[in-house]
Specification:
single chain, alpha/beta, 169 residues, 6 strands, 4-stranded parallel β-sheet
């Protein structure tokens, strides 16, 4: 039954390799524990432990990305550094940073996740409609644009959601 629900979860977001990998890892623990004759409580504990490990890895990777991005942001002394982002990103906590988050996609999923992450890190942010991004860029109010990547090829090319290309350009 859990395998059927896992497949439904993967199919709900078929393009997400991160979700597929996480579900596969947890189901792998289920299958190994079942083969070893572990009881239901032990299986549940092992699956929870794997899920917790996945979350810890995600948080650590987000922190490493934030540190790297912090080193790449431009120096702007007279005002906060203005960053435009599309999707779920992690940024460094700094008193001189203002992040504009583009609200796009189904039920503003990426914007809500990014806003929550930034709020937790103490980073000033504003959620804007995706139609305002061009105006901000044209008005030269943005110092950096940061976009995520669903997949990254060995040569550095990336694949991401619709709407990313115009921001990158």
């Amino acid at each position: 039954m859990l395998q059927v629900q896992a497949l439904a979860l993967i199919n709900a977001r078929v393009t997400s390799q991160h979700l597929r990998s996480a579900v596969d890892r947890v189901i792998g623990v289920l299958e190994s524990a079942t083969d070893a004759g572990v009881d239901g409580a032990g299986i549940a504990a092992a699956m929870r432990s794997e899920a917790d490990e996945i979350e810890t890895e995600r948080l650590e990777a987000g922190h490493r990305i934030a540190v790297l991005l912090g080193g790449l942001l431009p120096e702007v002394s007279e005002r906060p550094i203005a960053v435009l982002t599309h999707g779920d990103v992690t940024l460094p906590s700094t008193p001189n940073l203002l992040v504009f988050i583009i609200a796009g996609g189904p039920v503003l999923r990426g914007a809500r996740v990014t806003a929550a992450n930034l709020a937790e890190a103490g980073v000033d942010h504003v959620v804007i409609p995706d139609s305002a991004a061009g105006w901000l860029l044209g008005d030269r109010r943005i110092d950096a644009v940061i976009v995520g990547a669903e997949r990254i090829a060995a040569n550095g090319d990336l694949i991401n959601d619709l709407g990313t290309y115009p921001l990158a350009v």
